[in-house]
Amino acid sequence: MTSRARLVTAVVLTVVLLGATAAYCVSAIVGYQARQAVPADAQTAAFDTQVADDRIVFRNTTADAAYGLVASVSAADAGGSRSVSDVPCDRVYSEARSTMCLRIDRGVLTTFSANLLDAEGAVQKSWPLPGIPSRTRVSPDGERVAFTSFVTGEAYATVGFATATQISTIDGEDFGNLEGFSFTVDGAANTAIDRNFWGVTFTADPDVFYATAAAGSKTWLVRGDLAARTLTAVRESVECPSLSPDGTRIAYKKNISTTATAYWSIAVLDLATNEETVMPDTRNIDDQVEWLDDSTLLYGMPRDDQPGDADVWAIPADGSGASALFIEHASSPSVVR
Amino acid sequence: MYISLPQRGTRPKTGAPAARVSSVVITLGVVSMLTDISSESVASILPLYITGALGLSTIAYGFIDGIYQGVSAIVRIGGGWASDRTDNPKWVAFFGYAASAATKVGLLFVSGFAGIASVIALDRLGKGVRTAPRDALITASSEPSNLGKSFGVHRMLDTIGAAGGPLLAFLILFFVPTGYHLVFIVSLGFAVVGVVILGLLVPAIRPRRQSAATGEARKPFRWRTLAEPRLRRLVLTAGILAVLTVGDGFIYLVLQDRSPFAAQWFPLLYVGTNVAFFIFAVPLGRLADRFGRARVFVLGHLALLAAYACAALPVGGAAVTIACLVLLGAFYAATDGVLAALASEVTPPENRATGIAAAQTVVAIGRLIGSTMFGILWFAAGRELAVVIVAAALAAAIPALLLLVRPLTRVAAVG
Q: Any idea which fold B23-206 has?
């Protein structure tokens, strides 16, 4: 081939390849917008007029106009019709008065935020996040909130794996990043440089919470004290704890993998007897469990065949039975009592 | 910028000092730009894809990412060696680019963490293989007098891709929030175009044969020539400076803690650094040609030192954050391409790719060590003090290394 022929071939191939890519993009975007235009299969309602009594609030993932919006179903009839609001969240946790909503603020310049929503769904307070939203919780009395994000940014900015977890009150008092708390394991201060904390769960005591601590390749369940600003390791191999409504047990994910790649099962720890029960769901579960009541656990499971879609599953908390589909096309469940 | 048809191997050996940047360099820059759009678009959304779509934590991702960096450094030497051994940098580089493009096809079909991890590993391998042969090609198609400018032009185009890729990916996700596969397809498209342009438009320059043709004795590749004193001097200098180079991520973290502005824009701080890199790449490359590449390389670390000073300042705000990003960008512009130009300058043609690879590998490993040590210092001495200590060490090292590289600077002035 002469150099001229090469140039022509290269130009033609470039135009064809980039043109085909652009055409595919446009058709995919149009297709997505068409799906979005499909009216939601659920009834829509303003944020404050959703299912009134005991309800389960979650992130809706149906592939229609309601994708990514906060929705709710009656706790008594979880399989029944859902009510979808107009508030988008990537991770949501509701309590009777306050809702925490972690968002990916999409755009060419994508940023991340944690938002405290009032009963109408309006943003009351907002915190910027240093990376992708991970977990969030509101205390049972609705006074304190906690949120975790990954410290990601772009590949250039990655400092290995890091999380940032913050606790604040809804009145605006910030307790700061948990990395500022003193952390002890077996009575000795742990000052590892790669300490990370995530997955807060609150208790009925305003000062006490539980969370995950990690350093090196180990993880711990830690008991935190907001007044003393301390974190004390209680047990090893516990991630994303969740305290039962009666305060007697903690459900969490437990890494059962023997290789570097994590594989998590759900386990329940009885705080009085220190007895651990691993749930009989053998799938890899990566969520912070939510208690439906004192005997049932809820968690989100992404769908393998549909990126971005998930279902909420339920399993008896005593390990006596298999998991069952609880809410289709949903993730990030929280029970509002 | 003047773009002409590639002059296949008929490049004049002597030229005016202000010679134009070869069209081969520009073509290679465009290939790198397309490839960077491809790889950075995927890299930027990967954490989101893993957490958002696959529903996994990024724990293992961060862990594996560290291993890749090491693998990439080792493979880089292999790529340089293969290029010198075969005297065919183009096709070795082509193999690296093609391997990375192939992984984009893989991304469309694998799901699950292990699959993605192996696909990304292959992508990094491709990157490791192609870097040194590509830089050897840039050298072979440039005049010795404008080598710094040539690398500057290449890095400028490369940086456009590195900054543009993530923006393109997030634009796609803005239109289709779950459109990860769409990003993968776009990434594949850009990667294939890059490979096509490389294959068709970049001449298969043979550096060893070319130097033999111009009267220099034709020598086979020898590991021993790598022990050449000037290359040793350069590698030592670059290695010491690399150990004193704290990862950008740490600087961003310091800024984030100090300034609400930086905290809000934390996920995007790298864009600011890239824009500054893009602006300074060519001017600093030209400066390196005139003022001495070794000098600019060492003095470029003054920009890094100033960035440390910015980060350690007790005040924080939009202005300090932006100044810090501009300084970081200037630092990369004064060191990244200039190092490759320097390494080319001090190695004979038959060893060039291996020499470039050796210098780049030492820098990569040095930075890994530097970041790890800084992490330890960060905790032991506290954040501000840690930055001050590294800054002091760097301030002491710069004049000493300036003396060490004086022999290299003299050679550059003659060449």
A: Growth Hormone; Chain: A; (1.20.1250)
